[in-house]
Amino acid sequence: MMKLGNRYEFHTHTLLSDGELLISEHVRRAENLGYEVISITDHADVTNIDEILSKIGEFIKSEGQYYKIKVLPGVELTHVPPQMINELAEYSKAKGAKIVVVHGETIVEPVALKTNLYAVKSKYVDILAHPGLITEEEVKLAVENNVYLELSARKGHSLTNGHVAKLASKFGANMLVDTDAHSPDDFISQEFAYKVALASGLNSEQAYKVVSLNPLNFIKKILDL
Ligand SMILES: [Zn+2]
Ligand SMILES: [Zn+2]
């Protein structure tokens, strides 16, 4: 098997929302596992976007220089009215978010209908997390707007990975394996991420692409490289 490379994690939570760790410990633990990149994407709605992004920004500016791992600021727009997703995503980018994740229509939470649709229609959205029973139409829009679809390593959210992988493969949508980590035990290795991709029904070549190549393409996209 080809080398899987280092891990890039784009969807995680800290004490800025419902995660367990202070940013410093969260980042340190990811660094200690050999991660190349960690994105902090705490749950956000209209009330806390500024706060989340200014706190992560403060961390990066001061403590950030002492870590080897690259820390990226982001938000996860969570349970916001779907009609507001585009404007809140645009606002988040203006406030310094490098990554906008949208909390998709996981089957284990009462996420508003059309959340997936509005997320994949927005050019300011980078990742549609745990998109549940995403439709073919939505997957096609994700391809058009280059929104990456998440295969989740998280309990519950991962129930529909097989469905997501099947449609994403059929229409050529980009996928990422992310943890949605809320606590230190949630961090995974590249080997485990690869298994999550295989368990979603992808073949070894597809799984390798999702785990090892897509993160590099994704980071070029979000950092405009
Ligand atoms: Zn959460
Ligand atoms: Zn999340």
TrEMBL record:
User: Membrane spanning segments where?
Assistant: none
- Could you identify this protein by its name? PHP domain-containing protein
Q: Which species does this protein come from?
A: Haliovirga abyssi
| Coiled-coil regions listed | none
For this protein, the record's SUPFAM superfamilies field holds: PHP domain-like
Among the Pfam families in the record, one is PHP
List the signal peptide residues: none
**Recorded GO CC terms:** cytosol
Quote the InterPro entries the UniProt record gives.
PHP_dom, PHP_phosphatase, Pol/His_phosphatase_N, Pol/histidinol_Pase-like
GO molecular function terms here? phosphoric ester hydrolase activity; zinc ion binding
According to the entry, every stretch annotated as the Polymerase/histidinol phosphatase N-terminal domain falls at: 8-81
